[in-house]
Amino acid sequence: MELQDRLDEVRARISTAERQSGRSPGSVQLVAVSKTFDADAIRPAIVAGQRVFGENRVQESQGKWPELKAETPELELHLIGPLQSNKTAEAVALFNVIETVDREKIARAIAEEMERQGRSLRLYVQVNIGHEPQKAGIAPADTVEFVRLCREELGLSIEGLMCIPPAEENPGPYFALLAKLSARCGLDKLSMGMSGDFETAIAFGATSVRVGSAIFGAR
């Protein structure tokens, strides 16, 4: 199956999930996760009309996205992997959205760098929804207070929450918890769901889903 066919299939599945969940058509944004794929592998998705992409690493992204953005200026790039503080300047310069604000130190670094560069990025707080020690993110119990700190003390525009549920577990309860936390924070954006569970995420209120292998194939 060609990339165009895989992309069309994912889009069709999103549309079906929207309809079955009583959601408005087009209410769920597809973030095509292009990590590990080079510019030549990504271009067919751009040709097929995809405009929103997700990457895990700042350094890898710097090797391909300046060129791709120059070719297609309306592209929107999301950082969906952990951000190290020493890469903050590069991330703020290249990305449009950072979905992995996961601690006060990085929130302060982003705020300072956006002011320095005169850029305003859209931001999500990453929640460690399953309390997994190997994963980054704010503990669920600390999420409301952390969002308040980011908004009121640091002046950051937090638009939503992001999570990655524990593998091999039913993701539904974790998606439901993130939706509940989002409501308590007064946020209306939820980045949740990947290739294996994005339809479940849509049923629980995802406004964006991060899909990689179902579009680009195995890495």
Structure write-up:
The protein has 219 residues and is of the alpha/beta class. 43% of the residues lie in helices and 17% in strands. The chain contains 10 helices and 8 strands. The protein has helices spanning 3-20, 39-47, 58-62, 65-71, 88-94, 104-117, 143-153, 172-185, 198-203, 213-216; strands at residues 29-33, 52-55, 76-79, 97-101, 122-127, 158-163, 189-191, 208-211. Helix 5 packs across helix 6 and helix 7 (143-153) runs parallel beside helix 8 (172-185). The longest helix has 18 residues, at 3-20. It starts with a helix and ends with a helix. 38% of the residues are buried. The model has no long low-confidence stretch (mean pLDDT 97).
Task: Note the topology.
Elements (H helix, E strand, L loop, with lengths): L2 H18 L8 E5 L5 H9 L4 E4 L2 H5 L2 H7 L4 E4 L8 H7 L2 E5 L2 H14 L4 E6 L15 H11 L4 E6 L8 H14 L3 E3 L6 H6 L4 E4 L1 H4 L3
Parallel strand pairs: 1-2, 1-8, 2-3, 3-4, 4-5, 5-6, 6-7
Helix pairs in contact: 5-6, 7-8
Give the class from helix and strand content and strand pairing. alpha/beta
Radius of gyration: 17 Å
3D shape: globular
The profile of the biggest β sheet is: 8 strands, parallel
Q: What is the strand content?
A: 15-25%
Q: Average pLDDT across residues? A: 97
Quickly count the helices.
Answer: 10
Termini gap? 16 Å
Order of helices and strands: HEHEHHEHEHEHEHEHEH
Strand order of the largest sheet: 7-6-5-4-3-2-1-8
What's the helical proportion of residues?
A: 40-55%
Which spans have pLDDT < 50 for at least 5 consecutive residues? none
Number of E-type strands: 8
